[in-house]
Protein 1
Amino acid sequence: MSVIKTAVLTPEQKSLLKQAIFLQICDLQKSFYQDKKISERDYNDRFQKIDELTETLGIRDTYAYNDL
């Protein structure tokens, strides 16, 4: 059994992480909608992983534009 270690993120770290996730979401959407490089299944799987990550890290508000 593995133990998950967590650390408290500083506001600057949270901001940087939010920006990185935002860029990842933009790239994912471009790959799916514009470039059609990935399947709908891959798109949904990757987005689910991002969603789980934001929930785990407590940064679910990543999707709010005015937080960037």
Protein 2
Amino acid sequence: MKKILLMFLMASTIASAAEIFEEFYVMEKVIPLLQKSSVKILNRKKVRMLKVDGKVLKAIETTSTVFYIFDSNGKKSKVKVGDYIISPTTLSEIYVVPKEKLEKIN
């Protein structure tokens, strides 16, 4: 019985583990990709938008398709493949926009 409980606890811990990245780490790693991205208008502001894909995962050195970052407001944001990392054209801040929310805006 103890072995079953131990295995269950280990499995639940592994399943709930997610990587969390600080804002400046993500910015440092994705700025080269953001610089190459096109400028879009979002809520009447010019922003650079970067779709989270394999290149972004490689840049931040993760294989996880779901991870968290602390954005420029200090908010912990969940990021999934297909979501967007956005930044003003000055590349001074970084935020996450879920794919579903962006589709509602456009």
Protein 3
Amino acid sequence: MAYTPELSQKHSCTLRRVAWALGKPMTRSLELIFDWIGEAVDPKKVCESCRDKSLCHECVFHKCQENSRAT
């Protein structure tokens, strides 16, 4: 990973509580949250605004766009 953002105390506490609820480590919980974001945020808007097209095939937003095209 090229960049590791620091979480504020508030957001670190929130992540910790979500991790407890999921019964997962914080790092895995954060990954699950990012996977979920692919369903919660408009993937078309994200893809159109993206500045890094190098890993589209791995991006949760790209996968959601493929799923919406299939239906």
